[in-house]
């Protein structure tokens, strides 16, 4: 029995071994002894982010938030990351509340010349006056918070953490990370620079986490695995920009440099490449077959490359669009995210 238990632990992905090992040892941010940097990365996608919000909620409910050294979020994922690190992470259930969706998504605004996705109202009114977000607790959390956005003049994915001087800047960062052209209004100015939605340049911000020294990354995905499977890692994937993308660059982004247009047009190609690379990471973190009596690996074992593991909703999970407002669908999506993490931890 003891040998079977040991082998079961050894068969887990490297990222899971670090997560469970830190949880078992009571490891706290700022007091690590394993020499590793474990990052949580949260994908966005408008109301599709309800799924990754359910995953984050499950991590909180399992008492695992403190095992991470940093949380990286893009767009809706940045909002989820903020709630997770706040003093009220249970408020992540708000993603499934129809009132939440109605406060952010207002289709009638299109005829009034206003953004369909009203992120300003969401952050500056709902999060300050109604479903209050404790901004100070996020800034004070020993787990680093890294919201991302896209520089409107260079098209470069940018970590907004250096700009977070206080609650005002934090709210601006949340708005900047989700300022999708056409749908969510104009870009947001922060620290003398102008930013659009993180998803233009990096909708799954694992690359930034790795560039900043993460040795292990857990990625919360809001999309099921692609069918058929993505191309192999390293393969060049070119997807022709959609008609909608070309319209946005010709209208909402026409006053910005070509660099921003190019990065926006390349979003679908970049997603396909990310899917392929992340799938390869999922496989590479699994240990090679070993004899039953082989000595167990330790969490401190050196790796030639980082370990990255993605959590995805099941293929039969509810289909949630960027602008979904139906309460039943959103509640099912939140639960699908919860169940995905429950299966992973089990």
Task: Give a structural overview.
This protein has 346 residues and is of the alpha/beta class. Helices cover 40% and strands 11% of the residues. It has 13 helices and eight strands. Strands 1, 2, 3, 4, 5, 6, 7 and 8 form an eight-stranded mixed β-sheet that branches. Helix 3 (49-61) links the parallel strand 1 and strand 2. The protein is globular.
Key traits:
346 residues; alpha/beta; 8-stranded mixed sheet; disordered N terminus
The amount of beta strand, in percent, is 5-15%
Query: Spans with pLDDT under 50 lasting ≥5 residues?
Result: 1-9, 288-301
On the 0-100 scale, what is the average pLDDT? Answer: 86
Which outline best applies? globular
Task: Compose a concise summary of this entry.
This protein has 13 helices and eight strands. It is an alpha/beta fold. Strands 1, 2, 3, 4, 5, 6, 7 and 8 form an eight-stranded mixed sheet that branches.
SSE layout and pairings?
Layout: H1 2-10, H2 14-25, E1 38-42, H3 49-61, E2 70-74, H4 76-85, H5 98-104, H6 119-130, H7 135-140, E3 144-151, E4 157-159, H8 167-177, E5 188-190, E6 193-196, H9 206-211, E7 216-220, H10 243-250, H11 258-265, H12 267-284, E8 307-311, H13 327-345
Parallel strand pairs: 1-2, 1-7, 2-3, 7-8
Antiparallel strand pairs: 3-4, 3-6, 5-6
Helix pairs in contact: 3-4, 3-13
């Amino acid at each position: 029995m003891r040998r079977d238990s040991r082998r079961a632990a050894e068969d887990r992905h490297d990222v899971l071994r670090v997560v469970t090992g830190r949880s078992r040892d009571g490891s706290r941010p700022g007091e690590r002894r394993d020499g590793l940097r474990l990052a949580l990365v949260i994908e966005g996608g408008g109301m599709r982010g309800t799924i990754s919000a359910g995953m984050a909620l499950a991590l909180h409910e399992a008492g695992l938030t403190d095992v991470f050294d940093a949380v990286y979020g893009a767009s809706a994922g940045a909002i989820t990351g903020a709630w997770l690190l706040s003093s009220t992470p249970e408020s992540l259930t708000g993603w499934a509340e129809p009132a939440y969706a109605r406060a952010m998504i207002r289709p009638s605004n299109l005829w009034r010349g206003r953004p369909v996705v009203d992120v300003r109202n969401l952050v500056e009114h709902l999060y300050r006056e109604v479903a209050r977000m404790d901004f100070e607790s996020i800034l004070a959390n020993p787990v680093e918070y890294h919201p991302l956005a896209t520089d409107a003049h260079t098209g470069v994915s940018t970590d907004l953490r250096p700009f977070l001087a206080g609650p005002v800047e934090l709210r601006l960062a949340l708005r900047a990370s989700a300022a999708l052209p056409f749908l969510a209004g104009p870009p947001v100015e922060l620290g003398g620079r102008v930013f659009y939605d993180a998803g233009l340049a990096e909708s799954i911000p694992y690359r930034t986490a790795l560039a900043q020294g993460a040795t292990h990354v857990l990625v919360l995905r809001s999309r099921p695995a692609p069918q058929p499977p993505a191309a192999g890692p390293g393969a060049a994937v070119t997807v022709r920009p959609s008609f909608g993308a070309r319209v946005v660059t010709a209208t909402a982004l026409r006053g910005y440099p070509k660099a921003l247009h190019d990065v926006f047009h390349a979003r679908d190609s970049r997603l396909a490449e990310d899917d392929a690379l992340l799938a390869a990471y999922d496989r590479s973190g699994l240990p090679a077959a070993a004899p039953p009596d082989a000595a167990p690996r330790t969490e401190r074992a050196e790796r030639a490359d980082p370990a990255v593991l993605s959590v995805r909703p099941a293929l039969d999970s509810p289909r949630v669009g960027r602008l979904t407002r139906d309460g039943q669908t959103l509640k099912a999506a939140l639960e699908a995210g919860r169940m995905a993490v429950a299966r992973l931890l089990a």
